[in-house]
Fold this protein.
Amino acid sequence: MYAFLVQLMACTVLLANTGKAQRKSIEEVKITLNLKEKALQQFFEQVESKTDFKFTYNDDLVDLGRKITIDERNRSLYTVLETVSRQAELHFVQVNNNIHVKSAEKEKAGNVRKTEVEDLSVSGVVTDANGEPIPGVTVSVQGTSLGTATDISGRYTLTVPEGSTLVFSFIGFITQSIAVEGRSVVDVVLQEDMASLDEVIVVGYGVQKKANLTGSVASINLESLENRSRPVTNVSQILNNAVPGLQIMQSSGQPNGESFGINIRGQGTLNNSSPLILVDGMEQNLSMVNPADIATVTVLKDAASSAIYGNRAANGVILITTKSGSDKVDVTYNVTFSYNEPFKIIHTVSDYARYMELFNESQTNLGQNPTFAQSIIDTWRTARENPNGLSSTGYPNYVAYPNTDWWSEIYTKQWMQRHTLSVSGKENKTGYTLSFGYTDNPGVIKKTGFQRYDGRINLYNDVTEWLRVGTRIWGNVTDQDVSASGSDFFNGLGTVKMLPATYPFYDGKYGAPENPADDPQSHNPLWNMAATDGFDKYSQVFTDWYAQIKFLKHFTYNFDYYYQDQRREKKTYNTSIGKYSFSQGAYTTGAADPATLYTYMYYTRENFYKMNHIINYNQSIKQHDISGLVGYETQSFDYRVTDLSKLGLTDASVHDLNAATTPYSSTGYGTQHTGQSVFGRVNYAFNSKYLFEANFRYDGSSRFSPDYRWGLFPSISAGWRMNEEAWMQHLTSLTDLRLRASWGKLGNNAIGNYEWQSTYSTANYASGNALVPGIAITNIANSALQWEETKVTNLGVDYGFFNNKFTGSVDMYNKLTSGILYTPDMFMVMGNAAAPRQNIAEVTNRGVELELGWRENIGRDFSYNIRANFSYNKNWVSAYRGKLAADKSNIGDVSTGGNTRVLEDHMINEWYLPNVYKGTGKGYSADGIHGGPVDGMIRTETDMAWLLAMQEAGYSFRPSNNLAQNSLWYGEYIYADSNEDGIYGNSFDAEFQGTSINPKYNFGLQASATWKNLDFSMSWGGAAGFSIYYYATGRNASQTIYGYAIPQNIADDHYFFDPNNPSDPRTNLTSKNARLAYSSSAPSAASSSLHLERGDFVKLRNLTLGYTIPKHLSNRILVNNIRVFATGENLFAITGFSGQDPEMRTTVGYSTMRQYAVGANVSF
Amino acid sequence: MKKGFKNIVVGLAASAIVVSGCKEEFLDTTPSYSFSSTNVWQSPNLARASVNGVYNALYQKFSMNYTGTSLGVPSDAYSQVMDIDANWRGALIVSPGNASPSTDNVAIHFRYYYTIVYRANDVINNIDIVPEMGDDEKAQLKAEAKFLRAWAYYNLNVLWRGVPIYTENVEPMEANKPRSTEAEVWNQIITDLTEALPYLPDKVNGGGRASKGAAYGFRGIAYQWTGDYNKALADFESIETLGYALFSPSNGAPGNDDFFQLFKPANEQSAEMIFAVECVETPDMGNPRSINYGNRVTGGSAWNNYLPNPAYVERFENADGSKFDWEQYLPNYKAMDPKERSVFFLRDGLVSGNGKFGAYDFKDKYNQMVEYGADFTKYIDQGNEARIKQAYDNRDPRLKQAIITPYSTFEGNQAGIGNYTWTLRWPYVLDAGEPYDIRTDTNSKFYYLWRKYVAERDEATTRWVYPQNIILLRYAEILLRRAECLNELGRTSEAAQYVDMVRRRAGHILLSDPNCKTLHDTQEDMRELIRNEMYVELGGEDSMYYNELRWGTWYDLKYRDNTLGQRGGMNTNGLMEIWGTLMYNHVSVGEQMKIWPIPAKEREMNPNLTQNPNWQD
């Protein structure tokens, strides 16, 4: 369908007919014509109606509007054409029954020729990869001007000379050459060509031919085979690593909360650096778009392409266009079933006897009394040997004396399914697309999933030739389960304070910690999840009501009114369930008294409207192509929240607010921001070779004070299609070569709605037992706030060789954001009111983006396509609050942050951590300071002796200088004295680590191939040059806490040494992991680069194998086309990172999913 | 052509209409949930509300941050009175031995007290311009703000001894004054309170707002810190005339529980309250002491984060006023290893294997305690509980009213059970059924538990919104401080009557009673007695840490060398089980801990700030 659209847009019309019988030459045919100042097109129409001849031409090259005058009676067509050819600067070639029309650039006007050839009839059908016939394909004979075009059902018939080679070409598809070799039937399957020069790209407030682009723009076709079958729930997963310069990192796998960090060309600001995302012109969250509705995604990367979006475009723009109707009725059904599992599980110790020993070790290491008696450990071990034996309460030992592997209980593997049905078509003057989608994504943790119903209507009617009215309405309803598995669940105690000695669920009861000597409050995460219930419903409707009016031939007026209504309704309530001890045969926590249960209702409503008026102008005068637009836009955004809760249910089974007794809390607020803008664009191209573009936007935002509200954001750009130059023509292998340069200015207003003004918030107090209203300074204002300004300079080259088999591009950019709104750290003596934002920082991003592609068809049946992209971005804060002194003593003054800092000449939030000490391994000597532990850990008695000698010599160590068993001891790390002040590891010893959480390199590789009916594709992606701080209790820390999990990797490998018993079998002097210590404040737990891990990774994001069922089989069941496929998503990562998923860039969270899916694409 | 022209005219006209319809006001949006600095001081209502906003800052420390972060830690957790549960010892700078100027806790406290200063300055600097507000009201509101500012500087000066003084708010980037001396800050505090006094009401019921009583009280305390006992005494004496009195409905009758009832919501309006954080049953405005001091059978399931130190519990005298001594009840107790001593605290029936409650087999409990090291030769199978109870029964009545001692009961409430009476026993068996032992968050250890401030039965339906006010100054403390001043001024004999007023309410033996064995004749004895009386009366109420710092006793009590374990006299250093087995001990980084370090981050931003002695950034 896409191809057909492109065809319509480009208006390449080739009509032809062949047939040897009774063919007459143009000299023989007589004609009578009387046209006065009429368009060329009318001339063609009249000739075609009065003779058997058909004209063939490309209206990109032939000006059909050209006026001609002719008044001939019963003259030969040859004479008539000669007259016209002079007037219209054309020349005509008769090929059999066709008359080819060409512009007379290279040959003299007035040239009319005719050719006779030896004939051989060939016919066939041209289809696309899905077996859909393609009408309008140009079929020509290589080396001649013979040709025809396919009809509506993709058929063609052509008479060709013997030994000919047929060339099949069509916009949007790769041109194919096939030798006839005496056959009379040649059927062809054309592969889509996304790099085609005539491809049309969606740009800000319009479309543009890719060949004429002067800005840095990338686009992704979501309808391609390989993208269509991906079982993703969010389109971001497809965009990931698909184009250079667009970095997407998925930080959670939680259904409906996947949270993708999206950056275009690096983090340009200290504020929100997400790009502006527009779906059919409407601001929308990517996660709320049904991926199946999307036709194309365009990424506007430089200022030239995004300046038309003004003060919201500083971080780049992503434009999403949905599918629109086709000319014939088209019904498609897509279905996917996907089996989802967590990407990686970090296990904790499940053998509870071992857990107790490890816990005791962590205490005896500090010289403390062990908590767990040997008799209890033995009890557990004995029970484990006989898991099915019955305990004294009658429950089996494996339940009464459990050894729970919690993460394997928390995560589950589940089936997800998705269905999309769409109908599109055109009846007379009305075009329509209807689509309906259903997604059931249960997630990989119970009660976290959702069901979503998507709907869309795109409808238009051509009321008259010059007026089209239409609407796009889309939206969805999402019903999500509620449980305690949000971020609190992972980062709070729920999944850290848990013991293997708790059985998850048995016999209808949730287990409690079974060892009375252990923390009875340790959690049962499954109970935690079940202790809250409710629903979370989202409903959102987006609408666009539009009218297009064509006037004055070259003008169009577009009016759009967008309206959005989003609601969220969330209800949560406490359930009343107890925790049971299977070894004691009793509830240790009873079901809660309904009077102590809460019920909550949370409502949000979001309204957005936007109104556009745009006037477009488009005209070609000889070699001059001029177009432009001016527009006016207003928009307003409203958000309101209500949050209510009550305490005390009559019964746990009834939980609406009405059923609860006591009001507990009710809060609510609303917020609004508005914008107003005028914008415009001018394009000029000379001879299709020299391209110029200029954009501007004059933008006002309510987020700034009236004095600083309005800003002008201009951009200019130019391009040069070098391959069109005559002196390049001899380079036959070169198909395309284009240079681009651009400069522009953008803004960013992504700050709070009222930051320039309000400062006091509610701060009530009580008197007696009643509240009295109070307010307090909570924000200190800065009325001189302005938007941030980003200037981007871009240089780019696009090239294509060998008929665009090999294509690529290189872009270099310099992006300077100045006046960054940032809140510097405040003096503590100013209290806790939020500091005012100030336009203080400046950030530079400089980078290179490369893209390479190779596509080839080998024979009729096999074709393949490989695309690779790479981007490098260097990010640094080019101005902030001054330089850092050599001794770092002013670090608090010139930088902001703690373990990550914002400081001049360093990347944004670069890691700033102490390094571990590195010594020679020798003892103390005259140059004592160079002795000591090789890797910072006190491992040997030599290390210890050195440490003692150092202390005696006056050196001291941080965070602990206490050389004692319960503090600084064997198996703890010491830190380097980078400033050589004799204090090792104090706060001035921290050093910049050269990395941040943001990757410097991003890369991707997509490959696809088709062989007959089989198709195969894969997508790789990765990022490098970033670090993740990973050290957390219960995940990978050596420190223990009563009632908390102990990580399995630490259990398996940690330092152990007892100076009083060096032969203890637990002795391990080589481990990188510190000794077990019952204390969260052990020296090794201190923040240091020891816990900073490189995040570099390469992921196999997708692997797909598809098979299109042959037409003769599918047609039997009244189906036009069926393709079945098997696919895998997020399959594996090659990485050195030891945590969950480096892409998540977090210590712990809802794991991303690995998906194995099967599905089908059916069209009727 | 004509038609096209018409179109463009129509199109442009339509655009023009739309454009002209959207005026500049379209971009003027104002928040509907907060107030702008331009109108706060133009409205009497908003001006009054900003004074409430200064009080509101009290909640940040006392109500909101009771979990995790260190701001909410009751300051008595820094004193000898109690220790924090081993899991959370990192929340105290005194405990883990890694305190430094970069310790978050230090910065959090520093910033907190300056938040009050900033809000108070805002009122003091601006209230005069408020229209339509009487001068009397302005004077009182200003006086309240000055009182709160003085209270904040009092806390700052005790912890840091000399801090920068701001009496006016400055621009955000210009707050880089150097430190004033400790004496200058005391001066500022005294000045503020002196200026506030004439405009404050004599007494505010419940103590939720500034009053003359509160201003005299804190000014007296400030004088105590400067060593001016005459002026301090005068201030404490002034309070007597303002209508304050001890809460003592039973007038000291034997067996009364007035001391216990004092900490109940029903009595928070009593005449004893001088200054308090006004707590209500609203999130972030309630009293979290019940959850932090309570236990798992406390209504709403509380946490016992803070555990009374056994040496503190020994401060409660015998009923006759003599010092408590284990040897008196359990001969040879002190010579035993703490683990051996645990035998005295065990429940009955462990040896016979037949507990008092049904058929529960205690064999595993017995084995566990044998392995632990209890000296079972001293075990009395059916009399062990009775023996240990004597050591708690024959004591200052405040002991059992403030602390849950072994084998005493507690009126709790638990999900699925409702109100019930639980008992503190060891080893723990079950709380959700017979024998209904008190369950704690630290179930593998046997600790003393708080009773003071802990909600009983279904008194607190939600654990963090207990409406009991948090008392920051009450009349009993004033009486004891008055006694202290008299004693320090050499008027030792006059001091006793004020101590007796407090002891009478508690039903404890009076110093004036000829049978009283409490030593109180010399100034030295009286000093010791008054200090002990303050521990017993005020423990757990956020007064003792500052007192220990003022007396100079804090460092030695907290970090007393405990290499000898608990044999001999009880050691105060660390969290320990009732019989003295150490869970952890507090680790000092040096004597500089007596004064907190200036936060490193503030010094990095403001080079004018000097560091306290011996702290290295």
About this structure: Chain B touches chain A through 130 residues (CB under 8 Å).
